[in-house]
Each structure stands twice: as structure tokens, then as C-alpha cells.
Amino acid sequence: MGWELEDVEKPFVAQLEGLGWTHVGGSLDDPAVTGRGSFAEVVQEAALRERLRAINLRDGEPWLDDTRLAEAVAAITRLGTAKLMEANQKATELLLKGITVDGLAGWDGGRGQTIQYIDWDTPANNRFTVVNQYRVDCPPGYDSGKKFIVPDLVLLVNGIPLVVVECKSPSVPEPLAEAVDQLRRYSNQRKASFEVEDNESNEQLFASVQLLVASSFDAARVGCIGAGLAHYAQWKTVVGPDGRGSEQEVAAALGKSALSEQERLIAGLLAPAQLLDVVRHFMLFMQAGGQTIKTVCRYQQYRAVNRAVTRLRTGQTRLEHGESDQRGGIVWHTQGSGKSLTMVFLVRKLRTDAQLRRFKVIVVTDRKDLQKQLSETATLTGERPEVASSTEGVKALARRKGPGLVFATIQKYRNPELEGDAGEQQEGASPAKAAESQGTYRSSKPFEVLN
Fold first, then answer.
1. What is the mean pLDDT of each run of 10 residues along the chain (451 residues)?
2. Is there a single domain that holds both residue 252 and residue 220?
3. Helix or strand or coil: residue 378?
4. Do 168 and 221 fall into the same domain?
5. I want to staple 220 with a disulfide (CB 3.0 to 4.6 A). Which of 261, 319, 366, 404 is the partner?
6. What residues make up the domain containing 31?
């Protein structure tokens, strides 16, 4: 415990404090120290009420009364489902979309008003707290040998747990495997996987948790609820939501010549703006093998999407530049590296950006099977994809006013006056041959690679 605390946990907390997190030392005896009425509670309800009142304003002034606040707190603390993944999905939806409560007479026609648990657009309006040794009691009837759990670090936003961190000394054998196993034990996933017979935790702590981190300082991995060790991944970028950031700058700020995996993960994923960005735009619930799984983007996808969004925001149009549109770019993907999910993350981020939310997204592929795969995955954006079945269909969908998500094969762009019919390219055909079959095409200066 000594080495773990000194070599891993304390540096973790110190770096978070440098990024704007407030540290609260935990207590195993008094829940009030960590802002709770009892150790059975997982949310800091007083902090949540204070932030709900502060970030949900009417004409710049607080308007939420105790009744409406109680309704919002009850919704996030009493989710009404016994299964952890279902509870997590419900809590995540509340975090992202908010909850509608009764409005006020004389305001907006008395309509119900949506109140948000987190101010996603202005991170500074939220309260970021890291608590070490966050005791949570197990429910009555659980194995008598496990009356409570004590995660090393819990990161809370507005009093709601969003991240749980387990630290292990680098001197122990396989520290990351041990840390992940402990996270699975704390979230009762070993019981869910029939690896043990007894309940081992209070799953309620993890109902709102978005990220799980295992660290031994030199090595660090991040995963989601339900993930095993194989699905925890490194985070290898410090690029932020604005598409900018360098390791040299972060290392210099820490007085280091190079970053450890822990330092890189904290700087690139747990800085307040990054954390809110990832939770809002880069996490998905998906169906796989007949069950729901939760996934978070890989660092390459995060970096590529944010650089693409920055380019769209700041790049010159053809009219402004005088020669060519400067808002394009290339994102390289190897086979199976998640190009369809990168597309989903990009669309999700576009739709929350005031400057870009009305952009129409047109996805062009060279194969029908790829178009089918991508259009099915695209439903995860929350939008209904439209598939163009002809050249005229592409034109009609592109001309339609407002945002949209359109799919077409490159053959739909061919010149109908050219001789021959390229047809649809099948699996295994060369993209270069497909382009050649469409007749001549104009080449231009290569796009900058964004990832």
C-alpha cells in the first residue's frame, strides 16, 4: 500500500489538481467528509443540488425549487433497474439529455423545462472533485466478508461519480491485471460472469460511471463497465477537444523530459474539457452477441475527429482561399481499426456544435457491402441514414435543406454520358480500378492527414 500510494496514487491526484480538479481526502469513518449522508450513498447529493441550481438558469437567475431538485436527484440516484448495464445506460442518457421537470407559469407558456446535470458547453461551470479512498457500503445480505468497498480514486462531476481509478504498485506482478480484476470485483462483474458465487460490491457506485482506469504509473489502461483486461486500452494522445496539444508541452508543465502512460492518460483523457468531450461524444452502447456492451473510442479516433472538427471550424472555404477548399483532410485506417465508429463519433460531435450542427454528411463508399455495414453502424449517431439508390437520388438528397446523413456508392457519381456501366464494385475489387472505371477525374494537392 505504501509504494502504491506514494508512487501511483499521490502523483495521480497531484496531476489532476494541476488540471483543475479539487482533491478531497476520504474517510473510512465519517461519510460527511466526502459529502454524503451515509456510506450507502454514492452521489454527493448536496453538491449535485447546488450545481443543478447554478447551471440551470432562467434569464441568468436560479429558478429550481426544492421539489424540482428532489425530482432530478431521485432520477439519477434511483434508476429502478437491477442490472448494472441497464442502469448505466439509463444514467448515461440522463447525463447527456437531462430530465424534464414542470415549468413555471408565465415562462415559455408553462411548458416543461429540461434541466441538465452537467454543463457540457462550459466545463468551468461544473465542479470537478477527486476523492481518494471512497468508501461505499455493500447492501445488506451481501457476503459478510465484504461489508464495503474502497476504490482508490473516484472522480465526480457535480457530485456524480464518472470515473473510478484503481492504482497498483509497479513492483507487484502483473499490476494492471490485478487492478482490472479489482475493478471488476468492485463493479460485481465477476459475479455477473459466474466467476464467483457471492456478490462482491455495491453496483450502484458504477451506475453513472463512464470510465474505469487501471494504473501502475508506468503503465495505464482505460476501459468501460463490463470490460475485461483484453478490452482495456492505452491512451496515447494529449490532443484536446480543440484538436491541439503536444506531449512536449505537457511534459514541460510537469517538469519531465517524457511522460509515463499514467501522466499521458491523465493529460489526454481526464482533464475536465477532455473528459466531458469523451463522455458526450465518444462513448456508445452497442449490441454484440445478443447482449449490450459499452465502448469508448480509441485515442486515434478521438484525435482524428477533433482535428477534423477543428479543420471544419477554422479552414477557409474555396471562396475565401481563392483556389481550393481548405476544410478537408484524410484519416487513415487499417482494416478493422474502427472507421465506421470514427464516422459515428464525428457525426455526434458535429450535431452538438453550433457552427457545424446543420452540416449534411454524405458518406461515399466503393462497395455495397461496406455501405450496408456503415449505414447500420450509423444508426448509433441517433440519426436515420438515407441511402441513395441512383445518381439522381444522390443529387436530390444533397439538395435537400437542413442536416442529414446520406450514404451512396462512388458509382452513383459517374457521368451517365460516359460509355459503359461500371456497376457496383464487389468485395475484393481494386478501389483504383473503380475510380478508373468512372472516367477521368481531377487530382489535386493531397489533403493533410489528420490522425
1. 84 98 97 96 98 96 96 96 92 97 91 97 98 92 74 98 97 95 91 75 93 98 95 96 93 96 98 98 90 94 94 90 88 84 91 92 79 73 83 87 85 55 44 40 50 61
2. yes
3. helix
4. yes
5. 261
6. 2-296
Per the structure, the count of domains in the chain is: 2
Q: Which three cell numbers stand for residue 218?
A: 508506468
Question: Which is it for strands 153-157 and 160-167: parallel, antiparallel or unpaired?
Answer: antiparallel
Together in a domain, 170 and 316: no
Q: How many whole angstroms separate alpha carbon 349 and alpha carbon 316?
A: 20
Enumerate helices (H) and strands (E) in the chain, giving the number of each: 16, 17
pTM: 0.88
* 189 in the same domain as 170: yes
**Residue that terminates a domain, selected from 248, 264, 296:** 296
Distance, in Å, from the CA atom of 155 to the CA atom of 13, rounded to the nearest integer, reads 10
- End residue of a domain, out of 267, 296, 325: 296
CA distance 426 to 439: 18
**Distance (Å, whole) CA 342 – CA 325:** 22
Q: How long, in residues, is the chain?
A: 451
CA angle 52, 55, 58 (to 5 degrees): 105
Q: At what angle do helices 272-281 and 84-97 cross, to 10 degrees?
A: 110
What the block records as the C-alpha cell of 324 is: 481550393
> Both 305 and 383 in a single domain?
yes
Residue 326, domain CATH: 3.40.50
Residue 129, H or E segment:
strand 128-132
What pLDDT, on the 0 to 100 scale, is given for residue 337? 82
Residues 290 and 425 in one domain: no
42 and 75 in a single domain? The answer is yes
Cell of 181: 480484476
Sign for the pseudo-dihedral over CA of 375, 381, 386, 391: negative
Residue 272: Cβ within 10 Å count = 17
Tell whether 32 and 159 lie within a shared domain. yes
